[in-house]
UniProtKB/TrEMBL annotation, chain A:
Keywords (A to Z) from UniProt: 2Fe-2S, Iron, Iron-sulfur, Metal-binding
Protein name listed in UniProt: (2Fe-2S)-binding protein
Pfam families reported for this sequence: Fer2 (PF00111), Fer2_2 (PF01799)
[2Fe-2S]-binding domain span: 75-152
Organism this protein belongs to: Kribbella karoonensis
The UniProt record lists the keyword Protein biosynthesis: no
Entry-linked InterPro entries: 2Fe-2S-bd (IPR002888), 2Fe-2S-bd_dom_sf (IPR036884), 2Fe-2S_ferredoxin-like_sf (IPR036010), 2Fe-2S_ferredoxin-type (IPR001041), Beta-grasp_dom_sf (IPR012675), Diverse_Oxidoreductases (IPR051452)
2Fe-2S ferredoxin-type domain: residues covered: 7-55
From TrEMBL, chain B:
InterPro entries: Ald_Oxase/Xan_DH_a/b, AldOxase/xan_DH_MoCoBD1, AldOxase/xan_DH_MoCoBD2, AldOxase/xan_DH_Mopterin-bd_sf, N-heterocyclic_Hydroxylase, OxRdtase_Mopterin-bd_su_IorB
Organism field: Kribbella karoonensis
Residue ranges constituting the Aldehyde oxidase/xanthine dehydrogenase a/b hammerhead domain according to the UniProt record: 238-317
Superkingdom of source: Bacteria
Signal peptide span: none
SUPFAM superfamilies: Molybdenum cofactor-binding domain
Protein name from the UniProt record: Molybdopterin-dependent oxidoreductase
A Pfam family of this chain: MoCoBD_2
Gene3D superfamilies in the record: Aldehyde oxidase/xanthine dehydrogenase, a/b hammerhead, Aldehyde oxidase/xanthine dehydrogenase, molybdopterin binding domain
Region described as Disordered: spans on this chain: 759-778
Length: 160, 778
């Protein structure tokens, strides 16, 4: 079985897995990193949203062989470390607005929100409702109103 | 039990000077540290039987009396709910309910913190394993958790606090009234202090005794009624909250099932068993009743193997059914109207509501470890006792050999009333002889999982001279399965209750939940069911969303015929003062009647259930530019609800933040039911296979302006909240759509007639995952 190596939440790791196994299952079933959730494995629900080299992606739809040794994968568990704090400002905002209900989608929502804010910042602007309309992450509990409030608040406390 | 009731009612036992404080009873239980138990039956917080609904739970005493009381007699504390205080100063309560996002763990933590005067951080709420001795008191449904447990949990906490004070007074040799309790610390004269934890052992008793205590007066509340964040919020935002799939149970490897091409199809044979067993990562393959179970090192390899399954399938239970055939059967079964359209003007209308999926975001998941003489199950279960009984029977084990753990659920919406996935996990584990972690795939959840069935609502109103003379509603539905415990338990424990088979039980539920809030003369609302073999179940708010939507649309029609404004018309005909109050408030806050551009409109809906009252006002934009708006992402658009005002009278509000959250959720469900989300049945199976087919409300369809107004308390008792907001919001969206477009919508959701996606193939039953994820980063 091939060995794959990549940087996961700040640590270089190696894992044995068949090439085609999607990264989500490598993370969850082989490495025990369960923050990214399984909601569809069809790249639709976005519950597994994580970051690759700082950009949002869905590990349910990436074969592990496509991740190279220099790639940095960040899951919700590693998000605070990216800002060197106990919690990322987006997580703080999620607490402030008490966004979650069941919580199943929320790790993915937070990871998507951080990437979306960074994306619009790179375009030289601040996040708008139109940008938030582009978030595909499903919340079946219907927390969208608080998500909008929290993303805007979290963005204010995120560095450039 | 009757004895307890008498003593409760006895006024001589009320201490003078404590008006407004309620005396309650419980037990100090023999345990190593202080433990207090309270019976559900003694301190019934919700004794009025009026709208007993699913909640015949409001009157469990009858069931207990009729049931087997031997266990209770033998062990008087066996059916109690118990709060324990530990030496570290933490209080523990294993709630016999399921947390699925509705916020009951937070509410119970607040209740314990309040009556115990303990910081909420020191209150730990867990979910109790299946406790058969609780009978029907371990069922999470009917928005009943707070209504049924508010007083019992307060009682247990109040007795705990009182016992600590007594023990401190005894140890210090001072009078009880010289000891105060606050923030987990007892304080006496001359600087005497002790933490609760320090007294937890001394306060324990060696023999269980019955004691009385007094609840706090509402005016003294410091925690209850104040906004509080979820107790699990930190675990959620850090990814640490564990759902069934996140649990590590030794040897329980990922398992999925390849399924037949139609609902409830059966497995006749596996044609390539050896090849499947040889696939990479696969450890076991067995045939089960409804598919081929595959256990592997990763769920991904289960999905890979599903692609390769070559099986022969037997027919399902509804292979010849499609939307049109079901609708035809429903129409044939509609009960006749009683009042002929004579001497009055009549409006007749029929509304159709498509099949809808109650699947939460978390796919159904269960861990099962079945051994020769025992079994252990982990899953999100709202009725764990029935799961335990059924699974024991299925496995051929005694009930007490099956341990059932209730795991927090990633949503429920009715799905977890049933234990289908746990039963299937048990079947697989038994056949493989190994522990399994079974997850249904997303496609399984939509296509083989339970649905809220298709229904029609026919309404006829007769009106004359400014009055409504009759209101008749005939709701006809594909049979809804209530076999998740209530039916069985009532039958098992109370054979002489007027319940005979599912049909009359469903009718009972309907009659106990549906009431017209209007003075419309002769009013009848009846249910008839068609017994088709779909996998059905309740969905958030059961019948109410459809029934209330139909009724409120007719109310708007009536208002128009009588030349009245919809809000003014409702004011004239509403019976209930609480509904009138929320209606007026919604109209005021939402600026009802303001000028709106053509193609946009306001709509309003009111509803009373679970002893609460709600009015929802929405604004909708049905202009072509909005309906056909281009999205930068792929997705269904249609009309957009742009604003919503929800006014709720919750009786007594325990946690405004939690209540507001439930109102938000109900609104988004309602938008989906009215505009976008349904299952299309074709040749015995839903076409929907992913969240891009089943259009639950997404960010781009959610309103930007949502306001929740919580009315001042109108009661000392909390009402139900979890399902409360769906029906009035559904009605409001439908009414707004009708007013904006000038067309009465008659088929819901309004986009059901257009299939907005390319269906996934029905075989393989779970599609392969994409591989191009890195092309979609942002």
């Amino acid at each position: 079985m091939p060995t794959h190596t990549f940087k996961l939440n700040g640590k270089q790791i190696s894992v044995d897995a068949e090439d085609s196994v999607r990264l989500l299952w490598v993370l969850r079933d082989l490495l025990g990193v369960t923050g990214p959730k399984y909601g569809c494995a069809l790249n639709v629900c976005k519950a597994c949203t994580s970051h690759i080299n700082g950009k949002a992606f869905n590990p349910c739809s990436v074969p592990v062989k496509d991740v190279s040794s220099s790639d940095e994968i960040t899951t919700i568990e590693g998000l605070p470390d990216t800002v060197g704090k106990d919690l990322h400002p987006m997580q703080e905002a999620w607490l402030e607005y008490d966004v979650a209900q069941c919580g199943y989608c929320q790790p993915g929502q937070i990871m998507a929100a951080v990437a979306k804010v960074k994306q619009v910042r790179a375009e030289g602007r601040e996040i708008t409702d139109a940008d938030l309309d582009e978030l595909r992450n499903i919340c079946r509990c219907g927390t969208y109103t608080r998500i909008r409030e929290a993303v805007k608040a979290g963005a204010e406390h995120m560095g450039a | 039990m009757t004895e307890h009731r008498r003593s409760l009612a006895s006024p001589s036992e009320e201490k003078p000077g404590l008006l407004g404080r309620r005396r309650v009873l419980g037990y100090l239980i023999a345990a190593p540290t202080l433990a207090v138990g309270v019976s559900w039956l003694v301190n019934d917080s919700d004794p009025r039987p009026a709208d007993a609904a699913v909640p015949s739970l409001a009157q469990p005493a009858d069931v207990f009396d009729l049931g087997d009381l031997q266990n209770l007699a033998a062990a008087p504390t066996s059916g109690l709910i118990t709060v324990e205080l530990r030496t570290d100063g933490t209080a523990h309560f294993a709630v016999p309910r399921a947390e699925v996002g509705q916020g009951i763990t937070t509410a119970f933590a607040m209740i314990v913190a309040e009556e115990l005067d303990l910081p909420i951080e020191k209150v730990e709420i867990s979910l109790a394993d299946a406790r058969p001795e609780l009978l029907m008191n371990q069922l999470t449904g009917g928005s009943n958790s707070m209504r049924s447990m508010y007083v019992p949990v307060r009682t247990a906490a109040a007795i705990t606090r009182q016992r600590l004070i007594e023990v401190a007074a005894l140890q210090w040799g001072v009078a009880v009234d010289k000891v105060t309790a606050a923030a987990g610390v007892l304080t006496g004269p001359n600087g005497l202090t002790a933490t609760y934890g320090a007294l937890a052992t001394a306060a324990a008793v060696t023999k269980t005794v019955k004691v009385a205590a007094q609840l706090k007066a509402k005016a003294d509340f410091k925690v209850l009624g104040k906004p509080h964040n979820r107790v699990d919020a930190h675990a959620i935002v850090t990814g640490r909250k564990q759902f069934a799939m996140d649990l590590h149970v030794k040897g329980a490897k990922p398992t999925m099932v390849a399924r037949p091409p139609t609902i409830n199809g059966t497995l006749r044979g596996i044609n390539n068993l050896a090849a499947l067993r040889a696939l990479p990562g696969v450890t076991d393959v067995v045939g089960i009743t409804h598919g081929v179970a595959i256990r592997a090192d990763t769920f991904g390899q289960c999905i890979d193997a599903i692609q390769k399954v070559d099986a022969t399938w037997g027919p399902g239970t509804v292979d010849d059914e499609s939307d049109a055939t079901v609708l035809k059967k429903l129409r044939a079964a509609q009960l006749p109207m009683a009042v002929p359209p004579l001497l009055a003007q009549t409006i007749d209308a029929e509304f159709v509501f498509a099949f809808a999926s109650n699947s939460p975001l978390e796919p159904d998941c269960a861990i099962a470890d079945v051994r020769a003489d025992s079994a252990e199950i982990w899953s999100s279960l709202k009725v764990p006792i029935v799961a335990q009984e059924d699974i024991a029977k299925q496995l051929g084990l005694p009930v007490d050999a099956v341990k059932v753990h209730v795991v927090q659920g990633g949503g429920s919406f009715g799905r977890h009333l049933f234990h289908d996935v746990a039963a299937e996990a048990a079947e697989i584990s038994q056949k493989m002889g190994k522990p399994v972690k079974l997850s249904w795939s997303r496609t399984d959840n939509f296509r083989q999982g339970r649905t809220h069935p298709m229904s029609t609502s026919r309404v006829r109103v007769n009106y004359a001279a400014g009055n409504v003379i009759s209101y008749e509603q005939r709701h006809t539905s594909v049979q809804t399965d209530f076999g998740h415990g209530l039916g069985e338990m009532l039958t098992a424990y109370a054979a002489d209750l007027p319940i005979a088979g599912n049909l009359s039980f469903a009718e009972s539920i309907f009659e106990l939940t549906q009431t017209s809030p209007y003075n419309f003369g002769v009013t009848t609302q009846l249910l008839n069911e068609v017994p088709l073999k779909f996998n059905t179940g309740s969905m958030r708010n059961i019948y109410s969303p459809n029934v209330v939507c139909a009724e409120e649309l007719m109310v708007d029609q009536l208002a128009a015929k009588m030349g009245q404004d919809p809000v003014r018309f409702r004011r004239s005909f509403l019976k209930d003062q609480r509904l009138l109050a929320v209606l007026d408030k919604a109209a005021e806050v939402g600026n009802w009647g303001k000028a709106m551009p053509k193609g946009t409109a306001q709509g309003i809906g009111v509803h009373s259930e679970y002893r609460a009252a709600v009015a929802t006002l929405v604004e909708i934009d049905c202009r072509p530019a909005t309906v056909d708006r281009p999205l930068p992402v792929e997705g269904v658009t249609g009309p957009r609800v742009t604003k919503a005002v929800i006014v709720v009278d919750p009786g007594f509000c325990i946690n405004p933040k939690g209540l507001e959250a439930q109102m938000f959720g109900g609104l988004q469900d309602a938008i989906a039911l009215a505009l976008t989300s349904s299952l299309h049945i074709k040749d015995g199976i839903p076409l929907e296979g992913s969240w891009d087919n089943y259009f639950y409300t997404r960010e781009w369809n959610s309103p930007l302006d949502v306001q929740v107004v919580i009315m001042p308390n109108t009661s000392d008792s909390p009402s139900g909240a979890g399902e409360l907001a769906v029906a009035p919001a559904f009605a409001a969206v439908a009414c707004a759509y009708a007013r904006a477009t000038g067309t009465l919508p008659k088929y819901f959701p309004i986009n059901h007639g257009t299939l907005g996606f390319e269906p996934l193939p029905v075989q393989p039953s779970t599609p392969q995952s994409p591989t191009d994820g890195l092309d979609h980063t942002f």
